[in-house]
Structure formats: C-alpha cells, structure tokens
Fold this protein.
Amino acid sequence: MIKRPLFLLIIIFSLFTAVEAAAGINYSADLTTVSRAGTFTSKIYVRDDVQRMDMNSDGGKAITILRGDKKVVWMLMPQSKLYVEMPIDLKRELLPPFTSPDFKVEKKPIGSGTVDGHPAREYHVDITRKGKRESSGFIWEATDLNGLPVKFETEDKSITMTWKNIKIGGAASALFDIPPGYKKIEVSVPGMAGKGAGR
C-alpha cells in the first residue's frame, strides 16, 4: 500500500495542477519532490480535468489517477495489479485546512529568473485560514510554458518540488483509465465504503 506521506505529496501536487487542468493545459513532466520523508521521483500527466502521477518509491512503483470528471481518485499497485478507489472529497478529511471555505491562497510577485532553462516569474505564496497563516512558500512559473510551475519550495525549505522535461501536448486517453486485469480492493480509510470487486 502507499504510505501516508506519499499520499499527502500527491494531494500537494493536485493543488498545483487543479487550475492548470481547469484551463485546459495538457502536459507531461518529470517531478522530483524532496522532503523530510525522502526524495521521490514521478512522471506526471495532466489533461483537462484528469491527472496521473507515476511514482517510484521503496523500490516499487505506484500510480495515482485523479479523475475530476468521475470525482474519484484511483491508486494503482502495478506489481500486484490491485487498485483502490477513493472519492475526491476524501481529501477534506485528510487535509481540512486546504479545502475549508476559510482557506485562501495569496500569490505575490517578487522577482524573475531562470529555472532549468525556462524564464520564470517567482511568487511568494501565503496560505491562510481565517486570516491566520497556515503555510507559505515560493513558486516559480515558466513564462514560456503558459505559466506552468517549474519549482515550488516551502518557506522552511522542508519540501521542494521541481518540474523538468515538461512537454506540452495531450496524453493518450488510455493513460487515465484502469488497465485491464486490475482488481479493486477495499481499504479501511475513514469515509470510504464498499466491497472490493474485480474489474
């Protein structure tokens, strides 16, 4: 199963891709996340309101597919050909501050530079809830890639995310479907219900 720290990083990723997906920006990229939990590499795909992250960790591979159109998240385990389905709203139970109506993100431009060969604007990001700061950091958005993020760093430098090898263009629709032969399983996570069933 996928460890909780990895799932939280997936949620962080989804926060940064939600606006892009809504805007119809389709792309793929290599994403590296460095945190206290370790260094994780992944391949990400975004197409309209669907997203996919292929992550390597602990010598294994995990695939997460977020289907905005179906309001579900699928977490696939290729080695065992199993998958878990969760409603997108489940993240409200895992990260309540980020989905509360009192949650606000303020982004202020503070400079510009070059990140991985891309001209980029740098912003300071404040995440607040009821006027109280919850978190803050810095994000760099590439001006030659329609404002796609190329780097994010929390203020305390505990998490750094870098996007590389960004390719603009639609990914095959099959990437966002569950491959044949996978079996759905049940897990004991609050807010989830239903029995596992073969696909």
Observations:
- Residues 164 and 199 are 34 Å apart (CA to CA).
- The chain has one domain: 4-184.
- Residues 4-184 form a domain with the outer membrane lipoprotein receptor (LolB), chain A fold (CATH 2.50.20.10).
- The longest helix spans residues 4-22.
